[in-house]
């Protein structure tokens, strides 16, 4: 395709035939790595890439130590692990008795465990319905704002809570919705009393979802905004020429453009489903009571770290991990079936 | 162009394309109203927290809770908190862990991202798969806890840094950005005899300032906000970082830490004012830092999201 004169600042039309022999000359001298990797013996490649390998190692070693090695530690789920039979927690594994699937059968018969599973799933479903669409709607809203300054300020404000810790978010919520909080005070001044959303166990899941929306919905718009910016404007123009109004353009142009991103984020969210709300639940379990505030992660924490029943907690954690991997793979498969990319492709 | 006209120009709406119908007054009002509501939803709670932390005790007592309208300003709460004692120490701990941790994480991540950025290098695929696979599974809390314990990291600050030092997502974002740098630049430096480290330091990193800023912020916020590892690995109260002290003060309703207790009990300070002052202290660094990095967020998030 010939370049227009305007595309070069000096207005000179570049002579394409000249550039091509030049490229042809340089190409054999600077071959792409893909071509060479098959021909060059590995010793030479090792010498060429040794710095790259060396600088990659620290991160890889840290991941091996803190992500892969603990995987092996999951064997304690098949033991009656006692950290005190040996001076070191790891060597204690070799001295603890093996009990097979006993921990898992304990788990299946524990109503507390099933309560935690139920709470986890309910909270996940609730967040999927009440949290997930919010960033999409906010992104559409921000995207329709044309003034750049207004846009930037609104974005800056909405991103802010994402950077607050859960401790801060819950502190702020407590001061506003809690029993001694500002709403309760105001109501009390007007003759109402007993308002306390923070310790209401029936309302707790909505509260947790509300906190999540306040903290992360604003941040969530960033990915959608990027996807919206990538929609070619001629599509909108063509749709408008064909008589599509504002809403029909949103439905037929904007939303289809967002589809891959939505699919990707859904897959990620499903993969994370079983870890939902850990910090929030752990921080608020004293206020609401463990019945309403036990999710799988807090169950593992309380059984293992609090009660010292490591094998049992590890079994619960292992069940959670295996289901989690199945969920990611399943969700990804589902995305492929819908014709979307998902997280990875085979 | 003077700064003033520049400002005016940026406030004016850019022209709409001809095919777009002009906005209706009602739609415009609803839109800006809702946007304003969202922003207030973020700002008002912060305002209340800040005002309460600055209010003198009589004002807080008279209102009987959080203060919305400021009547008088005092810094006694902050003076008390920062004048030594547990909160001052916790701030030092948090600042230290955040600085050291961010520096360590950034060094490891930038090196790994560059090491993984050239397709076809020896072991590229193997290392990449090893790193990325960790995104799909978690090792589990109990085995990690046992590992940290038997490595002898409990009751050291290393337990707050090492287990969470590497974020694979951050490495992938950096890597995607490094891979986007035009190879002509690095190749010509290579022909001039520059080694990989030199290319990273003098060409790649200066070109990636935006994404480096974003990822540093992500790491720093992660370290600053973390409390869980400290709660299970540290048993010494005096070692706790700021978030954990805030938990004790606000959520567990343990009375103010030693030293503060005296001032609260003798009625010089309002416990609520002290709590809110700690909250503000925990909030300030992130609230100040993140807007500066904001204009780069999209770049940082996008490169990661697209190339993954």
TrEMBL record, chain A:
Q: What is its main location?
A: membrane
Membrane topology is:
Multi-pass membrane protein
UniProt-listed PROSITE patterns = ABC_TM1 (PS50928)
CDD domains linked: TM_PBP2
Cited Gene3D superfamilies? MetI-like
The ABC transmembrane type-1 domain extends over: 117-331
Q: For the region Disordered, what residue ranges are annotated?
A: 1-35
Q: Which compartment or compartments is the protein found in? A: Cell membrane
Looking at the UniProt entry, the stretches that span the membrane are: 51-69, 121-142, 163-184, 217-236, 310-331
The protein's matches in InterPro entries, at most eight in alphabetical order, are given as:
MetI-like (IPR000515), MetI-like_sf (IPR035906), UgpAE/MalFG_permease (IPR050809)
Keyword Metal-binding on entry: no
In terms of domain of life, where is this protein from?
Bacteria
Q: Which UniProt keywords apply?
A: Cell membrane, Membrane, Transmembrane, Transmembrane helix, Transport
| The family this protein is said to belong to | Belongs to the binding-protein-dependent transport system permease family.
Which protein is depicted? ABC transporter permease subunit
Organism name: Streptomyces beihaiensis
UniProtKB/TrEMBL annotation, chain B:
Q: Determine the domain of life of the protein's source.
A: Bacteria
Q: What is its main location?
A: membrane
Which CDD domains does the record associate with it?
Answer: TM_PBP2
Q: Specify the protein's topology with respect to the membrane.
A: Multi-pass membrane protein
Q: Which residues cross the membrane?
A: 34-54, 90-114, 126-148, 160-178, 199-221, 272-293
- Transmembrane in keyword set: yes
Answer whether the UniProt record assigns the keyword Cell division to this protein: no
Ranges where the ABC transmembrane type-1 domain occurs = 91-293
Question: What protein does this entry describe?
Answer: Carbohydrate ABC transporter permease
Q: Which organism is it from?
A: Streptomyces beihaiensis
The record's subcellular location field reads: Cell membrane
Keyword annotations for this protein, in alphabetical order, are: Cell membrane, Membrane, Transmembrane, Transmembrane helix, Transport
